[in-house]
Design goal:
Length: 239
């Protein structure tokens, strides 16, 4: 979605959900949620309607009331759930827009569902994925519909030899043998996993925490309900 100037909006203001006034120009000055941005240039100030806290003028990028002097204004751009300029990768946390330590902006790509990767590693919702050293090999192996965007996003991500959900690696999980179920079960030859809880993290798809099902050694026979043929239903390890 392109940048839009506040000065071009009706009454020179932008209203978000529940008619919250996120941006306004009054008497030649810029306000965010009623608070003055003293150094902001009203004539050039612009924002992206889908992101209520990110704006910029001719000189700098702003996150809410903070002037982000470390961000290069001219090369600043969106990359899915992440943001890039010519020297860093950024993620918008609950109250801040921060650079990801060690992320390479020249090879970084968005994978959907809050996942992102460069050639040397992967991230989920701004958090580095443990033990992931080959981000160029990551790919989604199971998707779910995001409650925020309505689109299909990966909730499991994998490369040869390893699988992750969120930023945590599922140990001893070879990606080449994984199968995903529409009811939330994940399985491979020799073991099975089931979600232990659900939550939301900003605008990302639902974050799911997983546990190995105890005693599961023949999961390729599990149905969508986690039942092995001719046996009792498997239960979540956290239940």
């Amino acid at each position: 979605m392109p940048w839009q100037k506040i000065s071009d909006q009706p009454d020179q203001r932008f209203l978000g959900p529940f008619r919250i006034e996120f941006w306004r120009i009054d008497e030649g000055q810029v306000f965010h949620q009623g608070r003055l941005l003293r150094k902001a240039d009203a004539a050039s100030f612009e924002f992206i309607p889908a992101h209520f806290f990110i704006g910029r003028d001719a000189h700098a990028v702003y996150h809410a009331w903070t002037r982000q002097t470390s961000i290069d204004r001219d090369s600043f751009r969106q990359c899915g759930a992440y943001w890039l300029d010519d020297h860093a990768v950024y993620f918008e946390y609950e109250t801040s827009l921060k650079a990801l330590a060690g992320a390479d902006c020249t090879t970084f790509r968005d994978l959907g569902g809050g996942y992102g990767a460069d050639d040397q590693g992967g991230w989920h919702c701004g958090r580095r994925m443990k033990h992931c050293l080959r981000g160029d090999l990551l790919q989604g192996v199971m998707t779910a519909t995001s409650t925020a965007t309505g689109s299909r996003c990966p909730v499991w991500i994998a490369r040869v030899g390893s699988c992750w959900t969120g930023a945590s690696r599922v140990m001893a999980a070879g990606s080449t043998t994984w199968n995903g179920s529409c009811r939330g079960w994940m399985q491979r030859r020799g073991a099975g996993w089931k979600g232990a809880g659900r939550g939301m993290r900003r605008s990302c798809s639902p974050c799911i925490w997983w546990r190995r099902m105890p005693g599961c050694g023949r999961c390729m026979g599990l149905s969508d309900w986690g039942r092995r043929a001719g046996d009792r239903p498997w239960r979540c390890a956290a239940s």
